[in-house]
Amino acid sequence: MNHLSSRIPYSVLDLATVTEGASLKETFSKSLERAQHAEKLGYNRYWLSEHHNMISVASSATSILIGYIAGGTSTMRIGSGGIMLPNHAPLAVAEQFGTLESIFPGRIDLGLGRAPGTDQLTAMELRGTRLNTAEDFPQNILKLQTFFSKENFNSKVRAIPGEGQDIPLWILGSSTDSAQLAGYLGLPYAFASHFAPAQFYAAIEIYRRIFRPSTTLKQAYVMPCVNVIAADTDEEATRLATSLYQMFIGIITGRRTRLQPPVDNMNEIWTEYEEEAAKQMLQLSLIGSPATIKARLKILLEKTGMDEIMIISNIYDQKAKLYSYELFADIMKEL
Asked: Based on CB atoms within 10 Å of each CB, which residue in 3, 240, 254, 267 is the most buried?
């Protein structure tokens, strides 16, 4: 934990983003290098997110990648942001994360999402004949909690490893539905404001209003994930951000590519519609020099009262990405 842990901890979300021209082996090595760098800079958590059938995202076997990152670090919490629970049997998730917690005690987080993390056709391939849908999400969380509980030792079905382990569960969301569930279950809440900022303020208000203290969490705990691209100047940060803008065009149009190098002029690439749609998704992003980001971040902190902030930095060049982490850590230490 960093020295700011009593104030606002800062953390990282990583999708093991595949850049144009890089191999998958290089992609995973870069993720580990980033995690080790983040750990030295005092980041609190390093989460990997489950996605499938996406040419630019290599974190599909999320629990395996978490083990790889945890094995190469020593103090940061490593976890999922998240595991898409409709794709998995709760018992399998309990066993996987029970194994991780057994190897790396006190360092594993289990963030859970209700979306498939992919398209419907791929989701059907993942699930096979299991009729597991987003509607089963609350029940499957309760199953997970049961498998992790000490009281389950007399059950006919047990999670070994997993049983009796204290693995923090988080609810991930991008809508008010997830906020209600997180509040009702008394679990910490991570919001995907890096791509779905529209309902963020409404969601955290609902979450806090209906939060019921649980055995694992006494007070509501909010952690938004935001895009952060920091550089020495606003101009350089804006240029680095063109890789992110190109990625969002892929999301909007369905034409996915690996993360592209930055460009000098986005007007040669995106249409007016694509630009407007991307900027809607990027409303809460922090892009600029340290002074610019610090000013915007202070406003965001005041408006949200967040308990922790998680950042994602889709920057093409690894050195620039590591430097962005460094600049943001410095900002957090100055607040």
From this structure: 240
